[in-house]
Structures are given as structure tokens and as C-alpha cells.
Amino acid sequence: MKRVQKYPGVYFRESAKRKVNGQSDRCFYITYKDPSGKKIWEKVGWTSEGYTAAMASQLRAERVRAVRHGDELPRPKKKEPYFGELARKYIEWARTNKKSWRDDEQRYRTHLKPYLTDRKLSQISPFLLEKLKRKLADEGLADATVKHCLVLVRQMYNKALAWGLWKGENPVKGVKLPSLNNSRVRFLSHEEARLLLDELRNVSTQTYEISLLSLNTGMRAGEIFNLRWQDIDIENGLIHVADPKSGRSRKAYMTEMVKEMFAAKQRGNPDEHVFKDRNGNKIRKVSRAFHRTVDRLGFNDGITDPRQRVTFHTLRHTFASWLAILGTPIHTIKELLGHQTLGMTERYSHLIPENKIEAIAGLEQRFISDRKVVDIKATG
Predict the structure, then answer these.
(1) CB atoms within 10 A of CB 152
(2) Could you tell me the pTM of the whole model?
(3) pLDDT of 312-337, one tens digit each?
(4) Of 88, 195, 224, 242, which is most buried, counting CB atoms within 10 Å of its CB?
């Protein structure tokens, strides 16, 4: 902080980054004593905002006159937090209050932090969030993910209100959330699955292993990324799925292909993640190698309906669909997927219409056969 020699009680500091007319931007401050003799520092403003040393001096003179004549001084404004500060407080709170705090942390770090972290809460408007919504959609995020991100922003502002950090409107109130129709229709044929895995094996060993695991166990990407070696029991063919989306732990069962895959990997320490990124840390999102491979195979060519597009989640959907086609009881599929309610699993009964046709044809055939027996008895 430097003193402005021409104006007593006026100081300034220079920005290391911002420039105005080729020179460093300056922020002016004034200092004076309140009626109790306490020294007060008050920020005036930046050169880039139109403030000058002379204006700062004039404001200081007004404050000194107010003290001298017993007038009430303006109360210092409470420092307004940045969204990044709110996010840190919120995630810290969520760690002990929400089972899904890891999802919140990942969504903030990956999708919200780059766009919102350096903005004050008052600078985040419904218009800005609409732009963010469009930006995330343009990046290829599913409507459900975009909605989760906006809901997270809404929850953060609600907490800011409850904690006394914010007194304005929640900006998410002015944003139309994406409407969801997430029931996927598309699942892979056995030939498509073989093509995908063969291609991934040539592109990225780890992406191949993660995809093989999802296709053979129905595990979500996040559940796979959370796996530690202590969760892998090759001898008994079991995988302990900890902290899944439903909030309950469950067991996944290894196929022979999955057993061979784990057996071929170098086992790490019990608390070490099975799959890591290039820096040796936990993976946060599906590798682009997966999406590029899907595009190269042409699985999504000409497809605009999101429910028909092949994504990583399609592997989990394919696992459940194949089980349904084999006649696996819907309750068994529910347990293998880790669904909380049967209603979440019942959609798989709608994915195999040809089986329904066969069932109805079988019912009709049985009816015809029974009628012939009756006719024979009647004529006999």
C-alpha cells in the first residue's frame, strides 16, 4: 500500500494483472478515525471503475466532517463471498451431511468451477446460468448431468441464505431446468459389444478394462472409479461396491473374463485405487478414448435422440438388457444393478418387445391347442 503524497489519508495499491491505458490499475483507499478514535480503512474503488485520488480525497473529507459534527458514518459493507468460497464451504458441509457429496464435489470441480469460481454471488444471474446450461449441453453433457449441476448451484445458494452469506434471490429460480426422459432404449448387440471391446483394447488398455467391467457387472462409471484393491476378491469372484449411488453397498459378481482381467493386473495396496489417471490419482470421468472409439465405429451416426445414443452408461444398460432377454427375474436384475426400487428396474421389461410377441404367440398357441382338445372331446 502506497500513500498518495498530494492527498493526506489517501492510499493506493497496484494490480499485478490489470492494466488501464498501458499502466497498472490502481485501487484507492482512505483512512480516518471514527468518534472512538479507532483508525478506519475504507476502500474507494479502482481507476478502471472511474475513481481517482482526488475523488478519494473528497470522500475522506466527507467522512472527517461527519465525525467532527457527530453525523452517523456509513456502516462498512459485509464482504461478499465468491462462488468458489461458497463451494468450498458447501462441500465441507456435504462431506458430513450428504451421502452423495463426492458427486457434488466432482460436478463442481469438473463443470462449475471453471465458469463460476471467480465470480461474486451477486454476479451470477439467471442469464449467466442459462449460458452455462447451453455451454454444458454443447460440450456433450447429458440433460440429467446439466440438471444436476444447476440443482447443485441452487442448493449452494440456499445454504448461503441459511448461513447468512447471501440475502438476494436464488438465481436458479429464473432458469428452466432441462426436462428429462432418461429411459434408454438402445443397448448393444453381442456383435457391437465385441467390436467395441476389441477396438478399445487397441486404443487404451485401461479404458478397455473399465468398459469390460461395466458390461459384465453393470457397474456405474463412478463405482468403478471408486474401486480399491481391498474391494476385489478374485478367489471368490466378488467385487465389493462401496458407496454406490443408492447409498447402499452391494456385491458384484465376476465373469471369467473379469477374473482374468483382474488377475493379469499388478495388485496394489489394499487402499489403493484399482484404476488411476496419468498422475496416479483417482479417475474423475470416462476417458475421451471411449467416446472417440464409439464415434469411429459409427454407433451414433445419424442418431439425434439421446436415448438412442451409445454412451458409457449404455454398457450398464446392455448388461441389464441381456439379463432380461435371458429371462432373469426382474428382482434379481434389481439387486445386481443396486436399484433402490423395483420401479427403476421395470423399464427393462420394455426393452425386449420381440420376447413379448413370442410370449403372446405362445399364449395364443396354447389357447388354440386347448380349444382343439375341447373340440375333439365334444365330437367324440
Answers:
(1) 22
(2) 0.53
(3) 989 998 998 898 888 788 888 888 88
(4) 224
